[in-house]
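Morning. Coffee machine broken again, so started the prediction first thing and wrote up yesterday's gels while waiting. Chain of 198 residues, entered below exactly as on the submission form.
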Amino acid sequence: MKEKIISQAKDMFLKLGFKSITMDDIAGEMCISKKTIYKYFANKELLVEESVQIIHKEVRQLIEEVTSKNYNAIEENFQIRRMFDDMFKSSETSPIYQLKKHYPEVYKSALKFQVEECEYCFRLNIEKGITQGLYREALDIDAYVKFYYYLIFSINENTHSEREAYNLEYGALEYHTRAMATEKGIAELEKNLLNPIT
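Came back before lunch.
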């Protein structure tokens, strides 16, 4: 039952927001009593925290699924963007923005995972792109990992609208790629830009 509650709560939080969904809403959607939810979660913040952990797990699995395929480094980044767009397309407000504003303690604990996961993925992608001749060889990888990380998280932490955040992230992806790309990489970028994320 605990796993079912977390799964239902996670879906509702992503769709309608961490703040607006109440324990009553979750109980009503599941046709159970609120007392049943409180049997497993002493308060809403604990449910939010466990829901965020499940979201992280799902994000990691989806990224691993994309990176296991035979995409080149630039195409891989666009595929990951599309995957995030599909995962969060029902959200009206940015989940990271919501967490930071309404559940700062959960946000702080989630941030460590986000930093480590993103920096690891960005680094692998840059190394892959250099090997493939899509990114310049003389890049300061540490610097570019941090540049992109700060750019993406600044957008998510400060942009209320999920749609606006994704549009900005799409522009950030193009900006990041152009800053690193070789002539071959620019050609690959232009090809991917012809199939925009909508």
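The mean pLDDT is 88. Going to sketch it on the whiteboard this afternoon.
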